[in-house]
Design goal:
By secondary structure, this protein is an all-alpha fold. About 85% of the residues lie in helices and about 0% in strands.
Length: about 150
Amino acid sequence: MWISWFVGTGFYAAISGFSGRVGRFISLTPRGLIFTLLGNGLLIGSAMAGMYGNRVKRSIFYTGSIWILTYGIMLFSLVQSYTVASCIIFFTGIAGGAFLVPINADIQKIAPDKLRGRTFACRDIFVNAMMPPLLIIGKLTTSFFLAVN
């Protein structure tokens, strides 16, 4: 699970790099729009997973979400249009939300009652441990985009 958080953290840095590279945006409003679309996609994906998650086998749900996330990130890195990138970000967010909700539900199911609080505390430690590498990933992404251009 920590690998998915690491990739997700890197994706946030890539989004910022993309919006600067393609749109050459000086203000933060276009970047904010992209992050808002990602957040709305996460919200919709979470709601859909909650409503329809029991109708699909977990393995298919996880695998489908991972494939959509993978292709979404790859497509996002290839497009040159802000509008197309915004659509890709939104649907990638839906897949991300659909991936995270069942994982949290499964963690709650398998964690013993007396360890449930500790289990989620440890998970949060790993999630928060990904924040310092965000600076490193941001620097690497910026260096990469500057070298390409």
